[in-house]
Amino acid sequence: MGRVTLTQYLIEQQRAGRINPDLRLLIEVVARAVKAISVNVSKGALAGVLGEAGTDNVQGEAQKKLDVIANEILLQANEWGGHLAAMASEEVEEVHQIPFDYPKGGYLLLFDPLDGSSNIDVNISVGTIFSVLRNSSGDGEPTEQSFLQPGREQVAAGYAVYGPSTLFVLTVGNGVHGFTLDREMGSFVYTHPFMTVPSETHEYAINASNMRHWEPPVQRYIAELQQGVLGPRGKDFNMRWVASMVADVHRVLTRGGIFMYPLDEKCRAAGGKLRLMYEANPMAMIIEQAGGAASTGRERILDVQPHKLHQRVPVILGSASEVERVVAYHQEG
Ligand code: AHG
Ligand code: MN
Ligand code: MN
Predict the structure, then answer these.
(1) Closest ligand 1 atom number to CA of residue 118
(2) Is ligand 1 within 6 A of the CB of residue 117?
(3) Contact 133/149 with Cβ under 8 angstroms?
(4) What pLDDT score was predicted for residue 220?
(5) Domain boundaries, the chain
(6) How many whole angstroms from 95 Cα to the centroid of ligand 2?
């Protein structure tokens, strides 16, 4: 039947009883917003979208113009369809309610509109990450509490990576599937069925400038990798750090390895660097669905009980055997 599009894939999932029409619409709308973000990202300086917005977000981080643009695109695209009860974004402090003149649905959508924004102005890959939860808090307006569900409750999760091509990677709990944007046709084409994290690996991703701040288990693990053929692992490892979680995790998903933003002395007070609800949880669901593992070092990420919307956590994810080793080093103390 020729090329399968994201729309066709989602209709098949609906027919198989894995998703309902509202969740199908939700994913279609997110994918449509991703196309619009992709256009803005790729125009760069031509559209005047580079540089600082001149504002700070809830985390006290300077917003880039594209952070603000991507956030607006996602909020506006998702407000009117009737599939959502509310939204939450890295760029918005409070829960974003659906305007009263639109119908409301049963899902909660969370997103990091633009991940890796420090890379925008240097023309390196950035992304979008999203997570979908059920709203089980009744008819009233959802509150922050409505969102505070562990990641294992996610009904869908995904990301888009704006790289040499724009790729949309999705799970609805039935494996991980990738779709490449055909820019001429304006549609996502099903190019990566049932993606799995290769178990044999010789690559790791960590910001090594934080080395002196790491905890002993992480110091030990990385030191062993760096000793290569001469160390206990008996083979050489390579290192990569894009500093866009989406790009780093996408590489791990594609060719194996481990991605870490562990707890360290610099981020201890905040609980970690990466955000639980719209970075760690959706990526953990994707990686687990692809046969990998995701942990804080002390707990499975998808089991972490959130206590606030913009909570941060340590993240260690990728090939299962490597993640298990890091967890074991934490247990050994
Ligand atoms: P965001 O741009 O959404 O704030 O996320 C940036 C995150 C993540 O994408 C990346 O892995 C990490 O920050 C990079 O941190 P360092 O600059 O400390 O390496
Ligand atoms: Mn991010
Ligand atoms: Mn971001």
Answers:
(1) 2
(2) yes
(3) yes
(4) 98
(5) 6-194, 203-332
(6) 18
**What tokens does 67 get?**
């952070």
Q: Enter the tokens of residue 57.
A: 């977000």
**Dihedral angle over CA of 181, 157, 204, 271, nearest 10:** 140
The structure tokens listed for 127 are 């992304």
pLDDT at 56: 86
The number of the ligand nearest the C-alpha atom of 89 reads 3
The residue whose C-alpha atom lies closest to atom 3 belonging to ligand 1 is: 115
CATH architecture, range 6-194? 2-Layer Sandwich (3.30)
Report how far ligand 1's centroid is from the alpha carbon of 306 (Å).
20
Phi, psi of 236 (to 5 degrees): -85, 145
Residues 6+ apart with CB under 8 A from 95: 86, 87, 88, 141, 142, 143, 144, 146, 147, 309
Write out the two tokens for 330.
């934490």
User: How far is residue 4's CA from residue 190's CA, in Å, rounded to a whole number?
Assistant: 5
Residue for token pair 């481990």: 258
CA angle 238, 195, 206 (to 5 degrees): 30
Asked whether the beta carbons of 252 and 259 are under 8 A apart, the reply is yes
Phi, psi of 178 (to 5 degrees): -115, 145
Tell me if the domain spanning 203-332 has CATH number 3.40.190.80.
Answer: yes
Atom number of ligand 1 nearest to Cα 115? 3
Residue nearest to atom 7 of ligand 1 (CA): 116
Low-confidence residues in the chain, pLDDT < 70: 1
Burial of 99 (0-12, 13-18, 19+ CB in 10 A): exposed
Q: Which of 210, 273, 313, 316 to mutate to test the pocket of ligand 1 (most atoms within 8 A of CB)?
A: 273
Q: What is the pLDDT of residue 1?
A: 61
